Automatic annotation (TrEMBL):
It comes from the Bacteria. GO terms for molecular function: ATP binding; ATP hydrolysis activity. This is Metal ABC transporter ATP-binding protein. Residues 231-261 are annotated as: Disordered. Belongs to the ABC transporter superfamily. InterPro entries: AAA+_ATPase (IPR003593), ABC_transporter-like_ATP-bd (IPR003439), Metal_Ion_Import_ABC (IPR050153), P-loop_NTPase (IPR027417). The keyword Cell division does not apply. Residues 231-245 have a biased composition (Basic and acidic residues). The keyword ATP-binding applies. It comes from Streptomyces chumphonensis. Keywords: ATP-binding, Nucleotide-binding, Transport. Residues 13-246 form the ABC transporter domain. The lineage of its organism: Bacteria, Bacillati, Actinomycetota, Actinomycetes, Kitasatosporales.
Length: 261
């Protein structure tokens, strides 16, 4: 049985009893993860605990050996509306070395919306807005290969924002990003959330994003170890397992809907 999200609408992500195997290794071992509409959920845990695999499973990029996944209330096998989802993978330099400008890379975030049609005025405005949100508008004409790692990360985030997704998934968006830029990203995210977006973030430290986070889900060895409010994780970067336990998510699914009280 699925758990209703706050407000009664279907959760944007509903992953239930997810198991996944990579190579011969069981990496997800029965994960429940629900993100309700308008919620900001942080996925925490030690290296190798399965965070990246869980978010990739949550968008169907890692097949489940058992378990269920629904996006916006639709089972994955029937879900087609990918323009509602923006995904920023774990830091990659995939676009580096490509002879593309910052604006071109960010514009590619509109692909799912405009397909092969040329960018229209609305598309261009969304691209410009995304560039401004991450503080990269001044570098729009530069080649991405001329950017630092942190700037590159901001461009990839802008690419996801340009698609105006209802669900934004970011895998370690703060990795290698200086504190000033982390605040820029926090402001960009706050803006998205204010306009109704739901967000799933993989993080090692909450940093300036802490005030935005409704719920933290801590993974350990491919399982949900606990679900907590951010303030209950006094130092998630160093001691993700020392914090106060609220409830195991699997035992108390109500918490997974963000109804911590
Ligand atoms: N392609 C793969 N083949 C086999 N094992 C894999 C593969 N990708 C990841 N794994 C293993 O799955 C486990 C979980 O990896 P995952 O990247 O999901 O962890 P993580 O929590 O995101 O870690 P980190 O904090 O280091 O990014 C690790 O033990 C990893 O070695």
């Amino acid at each position: 049985m699925d758990v209703p999200a706050p407000g009664g609408s279907a959760p944007v992500i509903s992953l239930r009893g997810a198991h996944a195997v990579l190579g011969a290794r069981p990496v997800l071992r029965g994960i429940d993860l629900t993100v309700g509409r308008g919620e900001v959920v942080a996925l925490l845990g030690a290296n190798g605990s399965g965070k990246s695999t869980a978010v990739r499973a949550a968008i169907g990029r890692v097949p489940l050996t058992s378990g269920e996944l629904e996006l916006f209330g639709t089972p994955l096998r029937r879900f087609r509306d990918w323009r509602r989802v923006g995904y920023v993978p774990q830091r990659s330099t995939a676009a580096a070395g490509v002879p593309a400008t910052v604006r071109e890379v960010v514009s590619s975030g509109r692909l799912a919306r405009h397909r092969l049609r040329p960018l229209g005025r609305t598309d261009r405005a969304a691209v410009q807005r995304a560039l401004e949100l991450v503080g990269m508008a001044g570098r729009a004409k530069d080649s991405v290969s001329a950017l630092s790692g942190g700037q590159h990360q901001r461009v990839l985030i802008a690419r996801a924002l340009a698609g105006e997704p209802e669900l934004l998934i970011m895998d370690e968006p703060l990795a290698g990003v200086d504190l000033a830029s982390q605040h820029v990203l926090a402001d960009a995210l706050r803006d998205q959330v204010a306009s109704g977006a739901s967000v799933l973030l993989v993080l090692h430290e909450l940093g300036p994003l802490a005030p935005l986070i409704d719920r933290s889900v801590v993974l350990r060895d491919g399982r949900v170890e606990r679900v907590a409010r951010p303030e209950q994780l006094h130092d998630p970067a160093c001691h993700p397992h020392d914090s106060e336990v609220v409830h195991p998510a699997s035992a108390v699914p109500r918490i997974e809907t963000g109804q911590l009280s």
